[in-house]
Structures are given as C-alpha cells and as structure tokens.
Amino acid sequence: MTETRFSKDHEWVRLDGDVATVGITDHAQSALGDVVFVELPETGRHVDAGEACAVVESVKAASDVYAPLAGTVTEANGALADDPGMVNAQAESGAWFFRMTLDDRAAFDALLTADDYQAFLATL
After folding, report:
1. All structural domains of the chain with their residue ranges
2. Which of the residues in the chain have pLDDT under 50?
3. Long-range contacts of 57-65, Cβ-Cβ distance < 8 Å, separation of 24 or more
4. Contacts with 75 (C-beta within 8 Å, 6 or more apart), sequence order
5. N or C: which terminus of the chain has fewer CB atoms within 10 Å of its end residue's CB?
6. Known PROSITE patterns for this protein?
C-alpha cells in the first residue's frame, strides 16, 4: 500500500513498502515559479531529517530541498537534470527528486497527512 505524507518544508514523501520517494509539493513549485535547474543528492548518501540535500532553482530564487526523514538515498531522478521544468508540470508525481530507505519507518507516520498539510497551508 502506498501512503503519502507531507513536511512543513513543503516536501512530499510517498512510501511504498520500504522505499520512500521524495519531491516538492505543488505549493512549493508554484511559489518558486519556473524551475530552471535541479541539483540532486548522490546515491548512497545518508541524510538526516531536516538536512538540506538537494537544490531547486527558478527564475525567482534558489531553494534547498530538505530530507523530510533520515535514511539513505537509493536513487535520484536524473530526468530532472535534463528537464527541470518537470517540477512545475508534475510536482507531486513524475518530478520526484530522490528515493530513499528510511532509518525509522515510524518517523513517516509523524509527517503531515494531506488534510493536515492543507490546514497548515491555510495558516501561511
């Protein structure tokens, strides 16, 4: 079963078995504007929750992408390097940034549900 959760830093995490796929939310890509460059983490890199591990640059600004959970990067989405505009078109689907194995599966459950994330956005 696939579940999706969200961070207050505007990343989404889709958990499928033991693999977590991470990307930025539609809200984040909308705030950034047209994305022109993406820097992805290296495969095999261990990241801590809250650690800056990727960069997304737009015509407006550059922003760090934070690891919403601790774990090891197992794959980066190389398609984003060739077509960073995918982030704008497919923020919460095909434009994932990286996949990782989690250090602690229970930490996933502590992230925001879709309803909680929408409520959080309403406070911004």
Report:
1. 2-105+112-122
2. none
3. 57/84, 58/32, 58/33, 58/34, 59/33, 59/34, 60/32, 60/33, 61/32, 61/33, 63/28, 63/32, 65/11, 65/22, 65/24, 65/97
4. 43, 98, 99
5. N
6. BIOTINYL_LIPOYL, LIPOYL
